[in-house]
Each structure stands twice: as C-alpha cells, then as structure tokens.
C-alpha cells in the first residue's frame, strides 16, 4: 500500500494538476464516475486532481474516454487519496465508513452525491458541484445546454412501444432517469406498461411471448443479443450504449441524440 501511495503521489506531481496558484478554490478528488463527468465540465483548470478509476474504463465511463485520461485515476484507498492532498473528496453513498473516518481525520471535507432519477435531480447535482468548485457560471452554462437539449428532443407524434433491456436482463421502470429519457424522446416503456418496476428481471422467454415494437439492448449479455430477437415479426431491434444510462449531467444530451437517431430509424 505504501508503494501504491508513493506511485500515485509521483503521478500527481508529474501530471500538472497542482493547486491553482492564485485562486482560493478547493482542490477536488472525485471517487464517483457521475461526478467525474460533471466536474470535468465545471471545475477550473487544475482544480480536479483525480477521477475514479471507472472513468478510465471504456465500458464504465460516463466521460468521453479522452477527457478522462487527462486526469489520474484513483481506486479510492485512503493512501491514494491523501497522496493528492485534496481539500475535498466527492464520493457516493457507498463510501466505506472506515475510509470516510480516515479522510475526515486528515481534515478532508467529504461531499456525497447520489444517483439521479430525473432531469431535475441532474440539474440539482450540477448546481451542487459547481457551487463546490466555486464556478457557478460554468455550472449554469452546462445546465442550460442540458435543458436546451431536453427541449429540442421533445418528441411529438405516436409513441413507440419500447423495451429498454439492460445488462443482467433488467428493465427500466418509472422513477428512473432511463424511463424519463425514453418518455421525453417518444418511446413508451413496454415493461412499465406491464407493471414491471425499475430493475425487474425480464427473461428472454417472456420477451418472445409478448414482444414490443422496438427492443433496445443495452449491454453485452448474450441474452440481450440472442439471434432470435432479430427474427421476430414486426419487431425492430437496436442497441443503446449503457454508459449513457449510468449518470445524468453531460450524458443527457448524448443520450437524447442517440434516442432521436433510433426513433428516426424506426420510422
């Protein structure tokens, strides 16, 4: 662990992410991939010292991977975090109590962010993190871009009965951001119409017995790409990048753009 801490310290020293020289702004380490993406947009240059290791994983990041590689990653150990000497750590609700206590004992402030389930939640999270960064103008600019995309992609006309089928065979239910994105884009949730809530497991056999107009597969699991799905009469099959469903913030416009493409193709 000492060697890991030393290597991270050297990485931080060589990366160019030193404390801003003149501005009295807090330096930040993010352990939350959703916060990573927002802080990349709202923090001042040099203020975000490190991002979560998830953001360096092309299959898990909510940032564009090139943007993520501009920051050192951290696995979230106390040694790694303290090597960056941050003023603030942004974490999720799953931060281990022992890690939280150790960081607080070292004088590091901890800000906790949760999962967003709506546009409003996402805008509130942006406001929180831009306020933390002392960059409210950047936060307001990002929020305006997201709201503009939301309005632009308001769909009119007949809705399309759609099954958003995610990794593990689960479905998106009411009260989730994925459900809100579908609804905004002119898709009617096939699973919600049948009383299936967020995270409910939906087996392949049930999909074949009661198919929607459109299947959106969001994951690499074999069941989601079974050849029989593309042989269903009157059913269109397409894919949707699961990384666009993990978080709100900057991923919302990209998710809406992709859904607009899918809807146009379905016509």
Characterise this structure.
The chain is α/β, with parallel strands linked by helices. It has two domains: 2-149, Nitrogenase molybdenum iron protein domain (Rossmann fold); 157-266, Nitrogenase molybdenum iron protein domain (Rossmann fold, 3-Layer(aba) Sandwich), CATH 3.40.50. Helix content is 39%, strand content 15%. It contains ten helices and ten strands. Helix 3 (65-68) links the parallel strand 2 (48-52) and strand 3 (73-74). Helix 2 (33-42) crosses helix 6 and helix 6 packs antiparallel against helix 7. Mean pLDDT is 89; it is low at 1-22.
What's the helix and strand layout?
Layout: H1 2-15, E1 28-30, H2 33-42, E2 48-52, H3 65-68, E3 73-74, H4 78-83, E4 88-91, H5 97-105, E5 109-112, H6 119-132, H7 136-152, E6 160-166, E7 170-171, H8 177-184, E8 187-189, H9 204-209, E9 214-218, E10 236-239, H10 251-266
Parallel strand pairs: 1-2, 1-4, 2-3, 4-5, 6-8, 6-9, 9-10
Antiparallel strand pairs: 6-7
Tell me the strand percentage band: 5-15%
Number of strands: 10
Strand order of the largest sheet: 3-2-1-4-5
CATH superfamily of the largest domain: Nitrogenase molybdenum iron protein domain
Q: Based on CA inertia axes, which overall geometry fits?
A: elongated
Mean pLDDT level: 89
- How many independent structural domains? 2
Secondary-structure-derived class: alpha/beta
How large is the radius of gyration?
A: 21 Å
* N→C terminal distance: 56 Å
Note the main sheet: 5 strands, parallel
How is the quaternary structure best described?
single chain
């Amino acid at each position: 662990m000492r060697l890991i801490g030393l290597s991270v310290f050297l990485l931080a020293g060589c990366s160019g992410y030193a404390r801003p020289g003149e501005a009295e702004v807090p330096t930040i380490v993010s352990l939350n991939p959703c916060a990573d993406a927002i802080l990349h947009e709202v923090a001042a240059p040099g203020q975000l010292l490190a991002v979560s290791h998830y953001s360096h994983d092309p299959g898990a990041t909510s940032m564009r991977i090139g943007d993520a590689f501009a920051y050192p990653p951290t696995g979230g150990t106390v040694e790694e975090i303290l090597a960056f000497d941050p003023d603030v750590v942004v974490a999720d609700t799953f931060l281990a109590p022992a890690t939280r206590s150790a960081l607080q004992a070292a004088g590091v402030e901890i800000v906790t962010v949760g999962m967003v389930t709506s546009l409003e939640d996402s805008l509130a999270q942006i406001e929180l993190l831009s306020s933390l960064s002392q960059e409210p103008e950047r936060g307001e600019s990002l929020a305006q871009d997201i709201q503009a995309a939301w309005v632009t992609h308001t769909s009119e006309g007949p809705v399309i009965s759609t099954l958003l089928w995610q990794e593990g065979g689960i479905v998106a239910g009411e009260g989730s951001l994925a459900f809100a994105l579908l609804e905004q884009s002119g898709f009617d949730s096939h699973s919600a119409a049948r009383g299936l809530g967020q995270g409910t497991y939906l087996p392949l056999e049930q999909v074949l017995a009661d198919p929607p107009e459109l299947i959106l597969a969001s994951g690499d699991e074999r069941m989601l790409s079974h050849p029989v799905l593309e042989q269903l009469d009157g059913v269109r099959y397409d894919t949707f990048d699961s990384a666009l469903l993990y978080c709100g913030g900057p991923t919302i416009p990209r998710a809406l753009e992709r859904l607009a493409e899918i809807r146009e193709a379905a016509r």
